[in-house]
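Can you give me the bound-state structure? Components:
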Amino acid sequence: MSQSAAVLSHEEMKSAIRALTPAQWLRLRGIAFQLVRGRPMDMEDLLQEAFVSALDGRNCPTDVDIVVFLRGVMRSVLSNEAQKAQRRPKMAYSAVGADERGETIEYRDPSPTIEEDFIDRENAAAARRYVLAQFDDDPDARVILEGDIEGWSAEELRAYTGLDKVAYASKRRLIIRRLNKMQAKGESHD
Amino acid sequence: MTEKKNPDREGLDRLADALIDDILNASDEEILEEFRENGGDPEQLAADMLALFERSVMIANKRHLTEARAGATADRAAADSRKKLAMPVNIEEMRRQLRAVKSDPNAPEKLTLAARKESELSDADIVSLMEDLFELGALPPEEGNDGAS
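Here's the bound-state model for the whole set.
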């Protein structure tokens, strides 16, 4: 790594990724798994797109962990995919008219169709229901997950559940272990 | 443009962020132990992930090459068309060159055919034909026009 550079060079980025340890690869895979939940993209595709995108000139500051950097790239890839899907010409037509020669033409509506919006909402809702259902037997874990979904802080969740710091941390470990087991078994909420 | 508001999607994103923070904060030992408990082999997983990365490197390289080629082709086309636009057209000289092709034994058959019909071709046809020949490399630029108008 060069002394004065604020960002990794292309070669430095490749070297940093090739040097990831098994634990770091597992973290990266776990992050991808969390990000694709309820989205029309699988984990491997997301990872591949993120690697390609990172190599395509993304700046990774030298003081940022490469796994954390790739997490940001994966989020960006998903956001771009969602925006592309919204811009893509749709099969639904908003109007039918006639051109100057009197021939019938159809005008395409560039906005997402009601059906596509509905499918996206349903996918997200189904994924949310599926995750929560895995913790039906554990009210505290379920409250923590619902709190995460609502954006509650750790302090708020501890106060609500009555768990102390150690018990709260232990519960969060249990949650991630169970979700990882779902991943190992090939989770699907369809 | 931002993603359309979808409360379930936003909630799922917040959940993913919280769980990802848990993953990032877990120790290496915890992560490896857990993976082994589920029957996984961390070394094999690392090898598979590295292979995925190497495939991505190839895709990125290929994409760069394709973009560079497209850029070079576009630059060449733009330069050629600037050159052509800059050249004054001397139609009599073009007709003379085309007629001269009739007696060239090395000229392609299609070209000698066009040369024989030179008197039947309009000025526009002649210019178009000479431009095609120039683009195909059948005529060097200096032969395409002598600079006089």
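A couple of observations. Strands of chain A lie at 93-98, 104-108. The radius of gyration of chain A is 22 Å.
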